[in-house]
Amino acid sequence: MFSASQGQFSPGDLSEPHKQLEGIKNCTQCHSVGSKIQENKCLSCHKELNKQIQSKKGFHVSSQVKGKSCISCHSEHHGRKFDAIHMDEKKFDHKLTGYTLEEAHAKVSCRECHTAKNISNASLKKNKKTYLGLYTQCLSCHEDYHQKTLSSSCLECHSMKTFKTAPKFNHNTQSKFALKGAHVKVSCVDCHKITTKNDKKFQIFKGMPFSKCVDCHKDPHENKFGNNCTKCHNENSWKSIKSQDKFDHNQTGYPLEGKHVGVDCKKCHTEGYSKNLAYGKCYDCHKDYHEGEFKLSNGQIKDCKECHELSQNFTFSNYDLTQHQQSTYTLTGSHEATSCISCHKPNADKRWQFKFTDKTCVSCHKNIHEDYLDGRFYPKNSCEKCHNTNLWAEVTFDHKTTEFELEGQHNEVSCRECHFEKTKDVKGNWVQKFKLPNLECTQCHDDVHETQFIKEGRNDCKRCHSIEKNWPIPHFDHQKSEFPLEGKHKEVNCNECHKPIEKRLPDRIILYKIKPFECINCHGSK
Length: 526
Hints:
By secondary structure, this protein is mostly loops. It contains 13 helices and 6 strands. It has a domain of 103 residues. 12% of the residues lie in helices and 4% in strands. Strand 1 and strand 2 form a beta hairpin.
């Protein structure tokens, strides 16, 4: 059996935090003789914890702990390396402490907060394993970035998601300067500059002047128009002018007239309003649409106002016929009545062209005789050899220069009736014939006599007809034919003897060559 002295031996070593209580003389520091461990003995040492419990704060007054004895969770005599706290940080419910972890706080490890630098109590600072000593105020753990220039209650402006933004801050209700217009879109740091204070990074939020625009903005006009910017500008956009009526452009030395009155300021003032603009010539602002087509003899570009005016759109021009007649291309005939855009059309760059290096007819007009008419009749595409500018259909071609001189009714016929067919070629031109295989009448006219008068292989209509209207036959002499007219035959009308003999569309063919011509052939046997 064991003696009484043996029964008082320690059941095991105490953990590292309690090792100073080792030895039989210290048993009563925790134990009461003849009784179990008393809670008051634990709390007499753990004073900070006792204060929390007395104040009904912290984890040890939660429903999970309340009513339990200390030893039920924190047993001892299990050796030096025993962790008497043995808390699973990953499973610990921080709500039970009275401080719920939210947003970014929920993502950090316990020891990022529960560390000596965040503990103000000197005694607790020494305990590397303690979870006590922290306060719920932001600045008890976080540095005061604003260095006491703003409220110490950080959550009035910031959330626990991130400190870098202030989603709870309302500039319109929590400051003396309500944000309007473009100010709403401006980043905070554009107005609240970052600087250094007490050798630390610092952003200015208080003590900033803001009664006038120039307190923050540089006056690009250098006070030429006063410092009341709102007379012309608004908070939506610095480049947006409230009303042109309120700004007297005459003060600039360039009064606005005509179409310039309705132009947005920034269309001219592309680099701000402080930069002086040249305005002596239109092309000081406007691009030379004509790309130097109207350069003067001295090399200078002819100013736009010579042809255009501010009261009209740029497409309007006061360039008239009188001015055109003084140009290098004098207008004559139908050209005088032709609209400008009929000749001056957009080029490959879609720019209207006014200067032409080639002034021949075919530079504007389609050459319908291409591939048909011999070039010797209009050398170098000189259409004026035949045509004039009064009327295209007026042709003065001298047909004597060809192998076929025009006579009689041929002088009244248009060229097209002889030389143009009723079909078009692949280029869209009328098919034309100027070089004919032969000059016989039947080359153009139908042989209504169906070869009755062919002689020596030729069908020469002029042996009988003249080239006058209705084809008269002054050259035919019946007496020189194989049947000279005698007696009553001279009084008989031609059609009494020469009758249609067969159908020929659209007319019937008249028989003139009658063989044999015995009396019985015409008069019969009676």
